[in-house]
């Protein structure tokens, strides 16, 4: 699907919330060729450097609503907890034909569309933080008012963050959030825990930190570049009776290894996503 659609928009792209994820989207869109004059950012705590960057590019930050023409898209990148207030505020901006894209964890399509004019086209998504370097993955689900053109537009905007997976069943969103939305935190925790474990067996802490960081980063890059499945890559490291096998006997313990522990963690995240939806 082509990003050219971003260069031919008739209305603005309004980004509501330019924090970690919203900021990453902005950079990605400008990189994909979205004309900056099509960009409107609504952000009460706009960082000085971002304000300067937007100003230099020709984008508008926090204009009066009366000065915003009918948006092609409104992207909601605020915390789920402020959704009720934010939706009430931006409701008047939603014109016929405006597509609303949400990246809020947990907030359901029903919740969002109830706060918007009847018939609003809504795409609910969940990205992840590797989006900041264009290597994220976003899961997206449309409501029944989203037509092919709206889906193409959402796809082009989300492609700035990395790859996009469309699903038809919104019930899968909380589980997807628990796997790919929150998942980078699990991987970073792995790097932290590996560094601490290295220090515990006698490595200087700074060296252990560098070894752990490079190991997690290199393994991720190998997985992407080789295209080989994770189980085969793991087996490639594991000599029979060797050091890795000794570690994996602990990590793959069916009762207290990674599998059951991560299972519990992902179930907890899925449940929290459900709670955030209400
Ligand atoms: N950080 C992550 O890994 C992921 C976050 N998300 C979702 O992305 C959304 C944003 O998360 P982050 O970027 O991490 O949070 P953040 O706190 O960095 O950004 C939220 C931004 O919203 C702004 N904001 C607050 N009230 C506002 C209002 N009334 N109007 C406009 N802007 C307002 C805040 O000033 C802040 O800059 C959340 O809903 C979260 O569930 C989804 C996937 C991954
Ligand atoms: O922790 C959260 O709620 C958000 C959603 C996925 C990643 N961060």
TrEMBL record:
SUPFAM superfamilies named among the record's database cross-references: 6-phosphogluconate dehydrogenase C-terminal domain-like, NAD(P)-binding Rossmann-fold domains
Recorded catalytic activity of this chain's protein: L-proline + NAD(+) = (S)-1-pyrroline-5-carboxylate + NADH + 2 H(+); L-proline + NADP(+) = (S)-1-pyrroline-5-carboxylate + NADPH + 2 H(+)
Entry keywords, A to Z: Amino-acid biosynthesis, Cytoplasm, NADP, Oxidoreductase, Proline biosynthesis
Highest rank taxon of the organism: Bacteria
Binding-site positions, NADP(+): 77-80
Stretches assigned to the Pyrroline-5-carboxylate reductase catalytic N-terminal domain: 13-106
Example of a GO biological process term: L-proline biosynthetic process
Pathway(s) this gene product operates in, as recorded in its UniProt entry: Amino-acid biosynthesis; L-proline biosynthesis; L-proline from L-glutamate 5-semialdehyde: step 1/1
One function term, GO molecular function aspect: pyrroline-5-carboxylate reductase activity
Translocase keyword on record: no
Designated name of the protein: Pyrroline-5-carboxylate reductase
